[in-house]
Design goal:
Helix content is 34%, strand content 26%. Belongs to the free Met sulfoxide reductase family.
């Protein structure tokens, strides 16, 4: 895998390269699970200071664990519960600096301290969320949010 850390580029340029890598990785493949698995693996390799990267898919009005990288996770999350369920219910990105301060936080991994959850929406319908956890408080910022939302925008073309 091509590691951009070896080159003198800023964080935005690294994210731009990541988006190109995602397109190349998924090009020609139509299987949703395979594409989500590779998308989570690519992010896990790209992002520093994360301990869980993966997807939850909407099934029967709840989020069900999909492809991921990290320790075993909660299998089902009700809509409106925790960070993932709240982001899904409101269909908007949640960037949480300290998950222990988030009302109703679901602690799948006690080592997680911050989290970003990006909804995956196709034709105005929620199909799931991208969930990324970090063992560091305030790990994610607006730059991460902007590019991770773009990452999901690229990904939906292959689901």
């Amino acid at each position: 895998m091509f590691h951009v850390e070896k080159y003198s580029v800023n964080r935005e340029e690294k994210y731009e390269l990541l988006l190109k890598q995602l397109k190349a990785l998924l090009d020609g493949e139509e299987d949703q699970i395979a594409n989500l698995a590779n998308a989570s693996s690519l992010l896990n390799q790209f992002l520093d200071n994360v301990n869980w990267v993966g997807f939850y898919l909407l099934k029967n009005d709840q989020l069900v664990l999909g492809p991921f990288q990290g320790l075993p996770a909660c299998v089902r999350i009700p809509l409106g519960k925790g960070v993932c369920g709240s982001a899904a219910a409101e269909m908007k990105t949640f960037l949480v600096e300290d998950v222990h301060q988030f009302p109703g936080h679901i602690a799948c991994d006690a080592a997680s301290h911050s989290e970003i959850v990006v909804p995956i929406i196709i034709d105005d319908k929620l199909i799931g969320v991208l969930d990324i956890d970090s063992p560091i408080k305030s790990r994610f910022d607006e730059v991460d949010q902007m590019y991770l939302e773009q990452y999901v925008d690229v990904l939906v073309n292959y689901l």
